[in-house]
Amino acid sequence: MKRLEGQVAIVTGSGQGIGAAIAMTLANEGASLVVAELLEANGSAVQKNIEQAGGTAISHPTDISEESSVNEMLRVSMDRFGKVDILVNNAGIYPVTPVEDMAEEEWDRVIGTNLFGTFLCSRAIVPHLLERKQGRIISITSGRGLQGAKNGAHYASSKGGIIGFTKSLALELAPAGITVNCICPGVSDTAQPRGHSTEEELYAKGATIPLGRIGQPEDIAKAAAFLASARAKFVTGQTVLVNGGGVMW
Questions:
Q1: Catalytic positions, written as ranges
Q2: Model confidence pLDDT, tens digit, residues 90-138
Q3: How open is the CA angle 81-86-90, to the nearest 5 degrees?
Q4: DSSP per residue over 136-156, as a string?
Q5: Helix (H) or strand (E) holding 17
Q6: No. of helices (H) and no. of strands (E), the chain
Q7: Proportion of the chain in helix, strand, coil states, percent, rounded to 5
Q8: Could you say which DSSP state residue 244 is in?
């Protein structure tokens, strides 16, 4: 049984890594997908993969830090599918710079993408969800938002902010039956940590995790599918840690 049959989901930053895994997993559960991805070629490739697997998808180049781009993405989604049931705020960036060397422009770019982008996408879809009195908003945060990030204060601040935003929006939307949650991955086998670690360093981190390995994109995607489904209808305002026990909250 496909648990998301007839649903429509937007996944931002879904051209690779965790976002692509979430998009594929939701599609496999029966949802129609909007692949909202800044890099058009990556988004088109994920759309093609979904369609080849028998699913339904469109891709749309989207800069989540720009309100006009977010609004256009939602307009295209509504024109194609007539509704949206699920929003997954996944898009994010993680440059590495110590605070003493961090330019204001870099701080603004990270906060503007990770936190402000989550706000823009959520704000755009809320009126539609309220009108229908149903829906799911799921945002991807990070263990860095709980523990801090050496040379990544902007990233940790943005991810910690997503947790606070999630709780606040959950309180606002609960009377309408709309749930708002976030997923907090630990070290995962994706392009982002690979950009900051060697292969040996990345997998050595697995030895420090109680379950003995780093995460895979599919681990996070399965949690997103649960939160998007009716099985999670009494779960809201939560930060779900999917990290093999690396951080226990």
A1: 155
A2: 999 999 999 999 999 999 999 999 999 999 999 999 999 999 999 999 9
A3: 115
A4: EEEEE--THHHH--TT-HHHH
A5: helix 17-28
A6: 10, 7
A7: 50, 15, 35
A8: T
Distance separating alpha carbons of residues 206 and 3, to the nearest angstrom? 32
Round the CA-based radius of gyration of the chain to a whole number and report it.
Answer: 17
Q: What is the pLDDT of residues 180-205, one digit of tens each?
A: 999 999 888 876 665 566 767 777 88
For the chain, how many structural domains are there in total?
A: 1
CATH of the domain at 49: 3.40.50.720
Q: In what order do the strands lie in the sheet with 32-37?
A: 57-61, 32-37, 8-12, 86-89, 136-140, 179-185, 239-242
The answer to whether residue 226 is domain-embedded is yes
Residue 54 located in a structural domain: yes
Q: Return all residues near 175 (Cβ < 8 A) that are at least 6 apart.
A: none
Domain assignment of residue 247, yes or no: no
- Asked whether residue 198 is assigned to any structural domain, the reply reads yes
Percent of the chain with pLDDT over 90: 88
Tokens (6 digits) for 56: 């339904």
Domain that holds residue 215: 8-239
pTM reported for the whole predicted model? 0.94
